[in-house]
Design goal:
Elements lengths: L1 H12 L6 H21 L5 H20 L2 H18 L1 E4 L2 E4 L4 H7 L1 H25 L2 H32 L11 H23 L5 H22 L16 H34 L4 H5 L3 H34 L7 H23 L4 H24 L10
Antiparallel strand pairs: 1-2
Helix pairs in contact: 2-3, 4-7, 5-6, 6-7, 6-9, 7-8, 8-9, 8-10, 9-10, 10-12, 10-14, 12-13, 13-14
Length: 392
């Protein structure tokens, strides 16, 4: 089976001896962690130092298993330092240099986010163009646009993190606290997860479908920015001033991103299956991955998302106990998180115990996105509770 061959290649690649590149990568990450600790260690508590160490170890392992992460990290690091270098320091006060061209038009947090938005939309259009025309060049260009969008999204987040301290030291926070910030996080994580599967499964045919959900998030982000001025950095509410936010929110959005990809693969599966039913020699179906590969990929993305969503839910309960004195309060956000968890737990259970495959599971994954979207966004729009700081 094609999928098994690719995954066997991936497993085999992890058994090879360490290369000079891997050693250099590990040293780069370790030096970066030491630099961060030297610069900001005095502001960290023991838990945040642990998060820094864990992040460094995780990044070393991830870069070893998926070398594209190494290149991505180097680009993000370089562009972020270009932005920070563009700030002026006078009497220990840091301000933005309004005349710095690259800062103003490329690597400030807002500029980088706009580039990310444009590149994701361009990537989606190019993926579909490549699918329709069978153009290898267009497909490669779409992947480059997607990688560039992820790069600018990460740069925007890193620079925004620094800008929050520049505006007001008391405002300083990791940029995963507001609805605006987590939408950027969602697009970046979803794009990065897709690019991983694109490389492992050696196909770009699903790119346009995944970019549909990312483009929808970008459209909301742009509306939220220009209509609500949501990009303005605000002080954190007391409940969010916690190290828990640094681990709970990213884990949550790996889950959201994985579920979104599974839904878009489900859509691609349904369209391909319908095309085959109408015409077994359908040109569209021939350009798509096989139904077996898409079914397997749906399963893998939901499994990954479920694992991280479970971790995020447990971390959220522990955070709630510290912030509000109880592990669970049936707050609307908590209740809908449980509904999402039960939905995908049932999906996995039915697949593994009953052997369901194909069309019903694709429809379930697609409908599951509606449940996930309401838990992510709808609760903030229509319900209130302890998580009301995320309202529109």
């Amino acid at each position: 089976m094609q999928t098994e061959n690719y995954m066997d290649e991936f497993k085999d690649s992890t058994k090879t001896s360490l290369s000079i590149r891997d050693i250099a990568w590990a040293l780069f990450v370790i030096l970066g962690a030491i630099y961060a600790w030297n610069q900001y260690g005095s502001l960290m508590d023991q838990f945040e130092v642990g998060i820094l160490a864990g992040t460094a170890i995780g990044l070393i392992i991830l870069g070893r298993l998926w070398q594209s992460i190494q290149q991505l990290t180097l680009w993000v690091t370089g562009l972020t330092f270009l932005a920070l270098w563009s700030y002026q320091i006078h009497d220990n006060v840091i301000t933005a240099n309004e005349h710095a061209f690259f800062l103003k038009f490329l690597v400030s947090s807002q500029s980088a986010t706009m580039w990310m938005s444009a590149l994701f939309i361009l990537s989606g259009v190019t993926y579909f163009f490549a699918l329709i025309t069978k153009s290898e060049f267009a497909g490669k260009s779409a992947s480059v646009f997607a990688w560039s969008a992820v790069t600018f999204g990460l740069v925007g987040m890193m620079v925004r993190w620094r800008e929050s301290y520049i505006i007001n030291f008391d405002y300083g926070h990791i940029p995963v606290s507001s609805l605006y910030e987590v939408f950027i996080l969602f697009t970046v994580i979803t794009g990065l997860l897709y690019l991983f599967y694109e490389q492992r499964y050696k196909t770009r045919a699903l790119g346009g479908f995944v970019m549909l959900v990312i483009s929808a998030a970008v459209a909301f982000l742009l509306w939220y920015t220009f209509d609500k001025q949501a990009n303005v950095i605000q002080p954190l509410v007391p409940a969010l001033k916690s190290y828990w936010m640094k681990i709970h929110v990213p884990a949550n959005f790996i889950g959201y991103g994985s579920f979104s990809i599974a839904a878009m693969i489900g859509l691609a599966y349904l369209l391909t299956n319908r095309a085959l039913e109408k015409n077994p020699d359908s040109g569209f179906a021939k350009r798509m991955p096989s139904l077996e590969v898409m079914d397997d990929l749906m399963y893998k993305t939901i499994s990954l998302g479920f694992a991280f969503f479970t971790i995020a839910t447990v971390l959220g309960a522990m955070w709630a106990a510290e912030a509000w004195g109880g592990y669970w309060s049936w707050d609307p956000k908590e209740t809908w998180a449980l509904i999402v968890w039960l939905n995908y737990a049932a999906w996995l259970h039915i697949r593994m115990s009953k052997g369901w495959r194909g069309t019903p599971m694709a429809w379930w994954a697609l409908i599951g996105l509606l449940v996930t979207t309401f838990a992510f966004l709808g609760v903030n729009m229509f319900l209130s509770g302890l998580h009301s700081y995320g309202e529109l």
